[in-house]
Design brief:
Blueprint: H1 6-9, H2 22-25, H3 30-37, E1 43-46, H4 53-63, E2 67-72, H5 78-95, E3 99-104, H6 111-114, H7 118-123, E4 127-132, H8 136-139, H9 142-146, E5 149-152, H10 158-170, H11 183-193, H12 197-210, H13 218-225, H14 237-251, H15 255-267, H16 272-287, H17 293-308, H18 314-326, H19 332-346, H20 362-366
Parallel strand pairs: 1-4, 1-5, 2-3, 3-4
Domain AAA+ ATPase: 39-156
Protein name: Replication-associated recombination protein A
GO molecular function: ATP binding; ATP hydrolysis activity; DNA binding; enzyme activator activity; single-stranded DNA helicase activity
Length: 407
């Protein structure tokens, strides 16, 4: 009986089975090109835990029929690794056989220790595949970086995790269809895994051990992971109810309620980028010209989430929600654009008035393009007395009249 962890038992056996990294493994993408060329280069795989770094390294070694030696920088010393690099050098000279040296958590070696790899990389003795969760720009020395290619791996999406969990349930090496589990429990496992397949599969395995009558309920999963599933259906009514509550709390200038609904969504596993998109929309729909800085704050929150992810990025969303709730409100531009859009769609598409047409050629000038145009900066307050609408919409107003500060 195979007693290895579930995450190891159902590890993909083909690069085509790896999820979430199509930007590297898909047709025409960097690692795929190396496979097709038959020549593998040393590389650093930079990405969050449980996204497939080790699996990619193992499958590359299998594809290229290379010896595969794996170390963790957390438990192995550089002296031990030097010995294996020397052995790889002998194999290369005697049998012309490639050796892939996989170093997990390579960032744990200090920069002086990293120099030990350089001579073997220079001679082509080894193909180094380093895995790291830390930014290589800060953790690896420039000499090593110049001899390797850095590839950034994506965190797995909730949909990827759901697919992996269902694969584990079906696989003969996994749970072999012995267990039934509701979609709600699978979604919960995906939510709490935070993009880490290993976390999700460990939770599933623990739940299977605790299950009775081959039935894994949501309650069992909650118990083994020691976290309660919040009532939230990302595709159903509760999803729309809570985003509506967040939107209306901000519109009603109640930052405390807005923070509560934000927390409900994030802790239930909502995609933070979905929330960020809604905040951008709110900033232009409900605040608009009353506080143009609101849009800047919303875009910055979106960028922060994309840059640092969760949970740190949650605070950027919280900052944004509080700012938007406290900001002055105006839907003037929202209403005005709706009116302009209606006119654009429902009225005849009249030609642009001749005096505001561009005249880049002599013929167009002779035809009267631009004739009679008044240059606004030549008039008081940079406002010339001329019409900019087509004739049928002359003097149309969408925006409210500006009120002068002294009025």
């Amino acid at each position: 009986m195979n007693r290895s962890p579930l995450a190891d038992r159902i590890r993909p056996t083909s690069l085509d089975d790896i999820l979430g990294q199509q930007h590297l493994l898909g047709p025409g993408c960097p690692i795929k090109k190396q496979i097709e060329s038959g020549h593998l280069f040393s590389m650093i795989l930079f990405g969050p835990p449980g996204c497939g770094k080790t699996t990619i390294a193992q499958l590359l070694a299998k594809h290229f029929a290379a010896d595969f030696i794996s170390f963790s920088a957390a438990t192995s010393g550089i002296v031990e690794i030097k010995k294996f690099m020397a052995d790889a050098d002998k194999r290369k000279k005697m049998y012309n056989r490639d050796t892939i040296l996989f170093i997990d958590e390579i960032h744990r070696f200090n920069k002086a220790q990293q120099d030990a790899f350089l001579p073997y990389l220079e001679k082509g003795t080894i193909i180094l595949i380093g895995a790291t969760t830390e930014n290589p720009s800060f953790e690896l020395n420039s000499s090593l970086l110049s001899r390797t290619k850095v590839y950034m791996l994506n965190p797995l999406s909730n949909n990827d995790i759901v697919s992996i969990v269902k694969r584990a349930l079906r696989s003969d090496n996994g749970l072999a269809s012995k267990f039934k589990i509701p979609d709600m429990a699978v979604d919960f496992i995906a939510n709490i895994s935070d993009g880490d397949a290993r976390v999700a599969l460990n939770a599933l395995e623990l739940a299977s051990l605790a299950a009775k009558d081959q039935s894994i309920s949501l309650a069992i999963v909650e118990d083994v992971v020691q976290k309660k599933a919040l009532k939230y259906d990302k595709q159903g009514e509760e999803h729309y109810n809570i985003i509506s509550a967040l939107h209306k709390s901000m519109r009603g200038s109640d930052p405390d309620a807005a923070l509560y609904w934000l927390a409900r969504m994030l802790e239930a596993g909502e995609d933070p980028m979905y929330i960020a998109r809604r905040l951008v929309r709110f900033s232009v729909e409900d605040i608009g010209s009353a506080d143009p800085n609101a849009l800047v704050i919303a875009i910055a929150a979106r960028d922060a989430i994309e840059f640092i992810g969760r949970p740190e990025g949650d605070l950027a969303l919280a900052h944004c929600v509080v700012y938007l709730a406290r900001a002055a409100k105006s839907n003037e531009i929202y209403v005005a654009y709706d009116k302009a859009r209606e006119d654009a769609l429902k009225t005849n598409a009249e030609p642009v008035p001749m005096h505001i047409r561009n005249a880049p050629t002599k013929l167009m000038t002779e035809l009267g393009y631009g004739k009679g145009y008044k240059y606004d900066h030549d008039y008081p307050n940079a406002k010339a007395p001329q019409e900019y609408f087509p004739d049928s919409l002359k003097d149309r107003k969408y925006l409210r009249k500006k009120v002068k500060k002294d009025e």
